[in-house]
Amino acid sequence: MLPPDLGLSHPFQTPPGPGQALEVAPGIRWARLPLPFRLDHVNIYLIEDGDGVAVVDTGIDTRPSRDAWQRLFAGPLAGRRITRLIVTHCHPDHVGLAKWLVERTGLTLEMSEAEYLSALVLLLDPGSLASDPYRSFFVDRGLDEETTDAVMTRGHDYLRSVSGLPDTFRRVIAGERLRIGGRDFEVLTGGGHAPEQIMLYLAEGRIFLSADQVLPRISPNIGVYARDPEGDPLGIFLRSLRSVKRRIPADVLVLPGHDLPFRGLHARIDAIIEHHAGRCDAIVAACRDTPRSAAELIPFVFHRELDAHQTGFAFGETLAHVNYLLRRGRLKQAMSRDDVLRVSV
Question: Which end of the chain has fewer CB within 10 Å, C or N?
């Protein structure tokens, strides 16, 4: 969690309860669905669209999440048709019930192409990351065998968390405008947390649906994965944040994928950028006298005890900072003394 930022204000202090939808702007309601994680909820948004409602994001495919949807259908959505289903990105808490909702409504799923295809790869081949060369991606960077085994089962976790994807979808592209309820929502996309995450900006109401790209209390997970071991998701994420800051006014109401709606977008972006700069500085300091692997650097970035599952995410995030620093010349690859890749200053 990032330190509190005094530049933020939260006009809605109490989130909607189960089966409730709270109006946060004219024609836009906020609902919450449960998650079985430390981050125990995901926000979804219901946008008035003529005689129906457009839905942004779906929640994870669990019994409590489906039950929450049933309460919405019996309550705020009673007698209303769903006109569109827009999913911001491929993570299970956002796309998990996409096929279930498509089958219920007969709609076409709307996503960016990279997000749809990323989800499809995991659904079609969930065990693909459980073999070489992917195992060596973790072991060569110092991760122990137990944690490596835990990380490499994530594809199966994904399969259990997602109802599936429809065979076809409508591609949503950055720069286009989605006409919803007589209003034009501009599409932005951002990378780092996910390949091509969708964000929506309503200029006339100064409303920004930021998905997970800008959150009020935490930075989203920015991780390197085995398919792109030398990738630079942190660099992509930081460029995306700066692009959002240039394009979106500071005084918008931000509707995020988690936590509370807030105002203070530019202050929040600055705090997130500073947070990652601090992590980079900590890694450089740790490598100044001693070459270290990505796994050995985790305690310098994450200062709490982690289980094997959490360590997997922490490994990917630490490596994202290492790759970022390598690309910018602040770190260099060190000679390996035990077939483990290490970095030094």
Answer: N
Q: Give the Cα separation of 30 and 35 in Å (integer).
A: 16
Give pLDDT tens digits for 245-296. 999 999 999 999 999 999 999 999 999 999 999 999 999 999 999 999 999 9
* 169: nearest Cα among 267, 87, 49: 87
Query: In a 3-state reduction of DSSP, which class is residue 317?
Result: helix
Give the Cα separation of 225 and 130 in Å (integer). Answer: 12
Record the tokens describing residue 222, joined without a space: 């920015």
pLDDT tens digits along 165-221: 999 999 999 999 999 999 999 999 999 999 999 999 999 999 999 999 999 999 999
- At position 243, the amino acid (one-letter code) is S
Report residue 229's pLDDT band, with 50, 70 and 90 as the boundaries: very high
Structural domains in the chain plus CATH codes? 22-344 (3.60.15.10)
How far apart CA 318 and CA 301 sit, in angstroms, is 7
Separation of first and last alpha carbons in the chain: 27
Can you tell me the distance from the alpha carbon of 100 to that of 119, in angstroms, rounded to the nearest whole number?
A: 15
The answer to whether the CB of 241 falls within 8 A of the CB of 214 is yes
Q: What are the backbone dihedrals phi and psi of residue 178, each rounded to the nearest 5 degrees, phi first?
A: -100, 120
With a CB cutoff of 8 Å and minimum separation 6, the contacts of 167 are none
Closest CA to 58 of 192, 206, 165, 215: 165
β-strands 253-256, 81-86: how paired?
unpaired
Neighbours of 246 (CB within 10 A): 8
Residue appearing with tokens 């993570």: 91
